Amino acid sequence: MGIAWYRAEVEKILGTTLELPDLNLDPGPRHMHHGWIKQPNNGLWAYGMYIENGRIIDNSPNGKLQSLCKHLMNTYPVEFLITPNQDALFINIPEDKKSAFEADLKKFGYGQRNGKAYSTLRLLSGACVGRNTCRLTYTDSEKFEPELIDQLEALGWGNLKESIGITGCERQCFRPATKTFGLIGSGLNRYQLKLMGSEDARHQGLPMLSEDGNGIYLRSIPRERVAQVIDVLLKNWKANAQPNESVGYFHRRIGMQAIISHLKENPVTADLMQKTFPADCIVD
Predict the structure, then answer these.
(1) Residue 17 burial class via C-beta count within 10 angstroms: exposed 0-12, middle 13-18, buried 19 and up
(2) CA-to-CA distance for 130 and 141, rounded, in angstroms?
(3) Cα–Cα distances in Å, from 256 out to 165, 222, 260, 261, 262?
(4) Which strands sit side by side in the sheet containing 45-49, from one edge to the other?
(5) Largest CA distance in the chain
(6) Residue 244 and residue 265: Cα distance in Å, rounded?
(7) Can you tell me the distance from the alpha carbon of 209 to that of 250, in angstroms, rounded to the nearest whole number?
(8) Domains contained in the chain, CATH given
(9) Which residues are registered as beta bridge partners of 182?
């Protein structure tokens, strides 16, 4: 029904007119709250702990996170919060406890995946739960995201200050359109790609519509081809970006049709670009 209809219905219930939003308002870049943060209200410290896709468990590639969180809560005078990005935030840590706190993080294996330090790309990316704990999803998201980051790290993109968001269905619970690369489950081991989003979350990603608006590209990328597609896009950015231009803003500058043309011409992705899906298959 659209936003205008929804606003009108709310106004009927309230009996008053809602003020229209300020379209020029800039909320600022997103903050991940990782690492040490000085609390401005009381001078104590907070520590933001990256939790891969929000899964606090032991015996994982990320260390014994469940045992670690329990130990920290029982050892230090802290409170435990969860961030909107599914990470953990320990607050009200005294200055004289910071060194011991950091030592305990290492003791339980925090800060590494399979013995390798977390990359910037991994820290900025994430996914919804997907299978097997969501009855709405079509395919893996929480399980696929670490695998995809592993592949992109192997291709040399681990230090990239960009983000990837993956969801298992069109409900998009991890907000993939607010990331540099948004991937939305469209079938079992199939994903639609959204581009034009930015790591700072100031811009929304868009589906890859054809120039006439009647078709959509990359609506159903096979799981095993996703890293290839992103690698082609990143190489194009690296070769043609302006100084200090991020991937998302590079894509916004050159436009979707230039991106589509590049993917059609590249031998790695040309076969994926031979087919379009009807525009009514778009995941908005």
Answers:
(1) exposed
(2) 5
(3) 19, 21, 6, 9, 10
(4) 35-38, 45-49, 88-93, 79-82
(5) 63
(6) 26
(7) 18
(8) 35-114 (3.90.480.10), 120-281 (3.30.413.10)
(9) 165, 194
215 contacts 260 by C-beta, under 8 angstroms: no
Tokens at residue 200, please?
A: 């700072």
Q: Tell me how long the chain is.
A: 284
**pLDDT tens for each residue of 188-226:** 999 999 999 999 989 999 999 999 888 999 999 999 999
How buried is 186 (Cβ within 10 angstroms: 0-12 exposed, 13-18 middle, 19+ buried)?
A: buried
pTM across the whole model: 0.90
At position 140, the amino acid (one-letter code) is D
Tokens 């599914």 -> residue:
86
DSSP 180: S
- 1: tokens are 């029904």
Q: Tell me the pLDDT tens digit for each residue of 232-248.
A: 999 999 999 999 999 99
In the block, residue with structure tokens 């960009």:
162
